[in-house]
C-alpha cells in the first residue's frame, strides 16, 4: 500500500494564540512564530506526521494491489470525512470507477463493502490496482488538546532555540505527549 496527498491541508492560523501563550506583545517575531506553528503541525499531521492520523482536512489517495477477500479494506490516516472515489484496474487492465453505492467508509477503519455486495475482480499480478481517494481530518478544526500541544511545542521552541542546552530540563506532566496520546493511531 502507498499513500499520496492529493490536496494538502490548509495552513492553520494560530499566531494570536501562540503570542498569548508565550506572552509576546510585539509583532517582530510573527513570521517566526507562524513558521513554528507550521513545523509543529507538520510533525504530527497526516502521512508524514507522528500521530498516524490526519488532523487538518486533506485529500489522500491510498493504493492497494487488490481488494482482497475481506469485506473491509483498511485505510490509513483517519478520521475519514468523505469517500471521493474508488478506481481499479479490471482484469483487462482498464481503469474502472467503482460505483460507491456498493461501499462506504467506516469511521477510523476504512472502506467496506455493503451487505450482499462483492468486490470486483482486478488485474492480477499488478501493483496499485485499486486506488481509494478520500478526505480525512477534523473538518471542525483542530481538537483542543492537539491545538494546546502544538502551542506547547511552539512555546518550547521559542524559548529554547538551540538543539542542545546546558540547562536541566524536565517534562511538565500532562503536556504535549499526554495531550496527543488519545490521537495516536496504533500500528497494525
Overall 3D geometry? elongated
Share in helix: 10-25%
Please give the largest β-sheet. 5 strands, antiparallel
Radius of gyration: 21 Å
CATH class of the largest domain: Mainly Alpha
Beta-strand portion reads 15-25%
The total beta strand count reads 8
Helix segment count? 4
Order of helices and strands: EHHEEEEEEEHH
Low-confidence parts: none
Enter the CATH topology name of the largest domain. Hypothetical protein yqbg
Q: Strand arrangement, largest sheet? A: 1-2-8-4-5
The termini sit apart by: 13 Å
How many independent structural domains? 2
CATH architecture assignment of the largest domain: Orthogonal Bundle
The SS-based structural class is alpha+beta
Query: Averaging pLDDT over every residue, what do you get?
Result: 91
InterPro entries: Phage_CHP
Protein name: Phage gp6-like head-tail connector protein
Structure description:
The protein is an alpha+beta fold and 188 residues long. The protein has 2 domains: 8-54 and 141-182, Phage gp6-like head-tail connector protein (Hypothetical protein yqbg); 59-136. The protein contains 4 helices and 8 strands. It has helices at 15-22, 30-44, 144-159, 176-180; strands at 2-7, 58-64, 72-74, 80-89, 95-97, 103-106, 110-113, 130-136. The chain has a 5-stranded antiparallel sheet with strand order 1-2-8-4-5, with no helix packed on it. α1 crosses α3 (144-159) and α2 packs across α3. The chain starts with a strand and ends in an 8-residue tail after the last helix. The mean pLDDT is 91.
Amino acid at each position: 500500500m502507498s499513500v499520496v496527498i492529493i490536496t494538502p491541508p490548509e495552513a492553520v492560523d494560530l499566531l494570536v494564540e501562540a503570542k498569548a501563550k508565550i506572552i509576546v506583545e510585539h509583532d517582530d517575531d510573527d513570521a517566526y512564530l507562524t513558521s513554528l506553528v507550521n513545523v509543529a503541525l507538520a510533525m504530527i499531521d497526516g502521512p508524514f506526521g507522528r500521530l498516524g492520523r490526519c488532523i487538518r482536512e486533506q485529500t489522500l489517495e491510498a493504493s492497494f494491489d487488490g481488494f482482497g477477500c475481506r469485506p473491509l479494506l483498511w485505510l490509513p490516516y483517519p478520521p475519514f470525512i468523505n469517500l471521493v472515489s474508488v478506481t481499479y484496474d479490471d482484469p483487462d487492465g482498464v481503469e474502472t470507477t467503482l460505483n460507491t453505492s456498493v461501499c462506504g467508509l467506516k469511521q477510523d477503519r476504512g472502506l467496506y463493502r455493503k451487505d450482499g455486495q462483492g468486490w470486483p475482480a482486478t488485474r492480477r499480478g499488478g501493483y496499485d490496482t485499486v486506488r481509494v481517494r478520500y478526505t480525512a481530518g477534523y473538518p471542525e478544526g483542530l481538537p483542543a488538546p492537539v491545538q494546546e500541544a502544538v502551542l506547547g511545542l511552539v512555546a518550547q521552541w521559542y524559548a529554547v532555540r538551540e538543539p542542545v542546552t546546558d540547562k536541566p530540563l524536565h517534562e511538565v506532566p500532562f503536556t504535549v505527549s499526554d495531550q496527543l496520546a488519545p490521537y495516536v493511531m496504533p500500528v497494525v
